[in-house]
Amino acid sequence: MFFDSWYGLLRVLVVGTIAYVGLILVLRISGKRTLAKLNAFDLVVTVALGSTLASVLLTKSVALVEGMLGFVLLISLQYLVAWLSVRSSRFSALVKSEPTLLLHRGRFLEGALREQRVTRQEVLSALRGHGAAEPGDVVAVVLETDGTLSVINGNGGERPVGTLADVDATGAGGPQQA
């Protein structure tokens, strides 16, 4: 239960070190975009890489070369999806979601909250985290494609905020789309 063999410990040390170094090398070769959490797909790939590393480290039936192939496969697929997303708006729309406006000029957008399964309390928590005392103190709260809540301050006027140009505000009475 606490100890099986010296071989098992040695295997974790050797395979773990080589797998870790291999993962770092593959990530450096693939570029910064590989670990960016710009959307849900990126987050899934990051979690899958961690899971693959754990499997290589702790599962004796997973050989080091199989784990390294898993790293390369996941990173290659993520690279391909990112490459296609940049070159095809149709493909991008298929794999990525749009950010959603949840609060606009102090008004909660109930339909958007319900559709995205976000509570008022979660929005209020994001406001507190950004130092806002009242919902009316901010221009907007946006549920980003990676699941984070962005709080947009300032712009006391009625002019639409430029960073909200790509935000889904359909039927929400949100900012006018230019």
Tell me the layout of helices and strands.
Elements (H helix, E strand, L loop, with lengths): L5 H25 L9 H19 L5 H24 L1 H7 L4 E5 L2 E2 L1 H7 L3 H10 L10 E4 L5 E4 L26
Antiparallel strand pairs: 1-2, 1-3, 3-4
Account of the protein in words:
- It is a single chain.
- The protein has about 180 residues and is an alpha+beta fold.
- It folds into 2 domains: about 5-95; about 100-165, CRO Repressor (2-Layer Sandwich), CATH 3.30.240.20.
- Helices cover about 50% and strands about 10% of the residues.
- The protein contains 6 helices and 4 strands; from the N terminus they run ααααββααββ.
- A 4-stranded antiparallel sheet has the order 2-1-3-4.
- A hairpin with a 5-residue loop joins strand 3 (about 140-145) and strand 4.
- It is elongated and about 60 Å long.
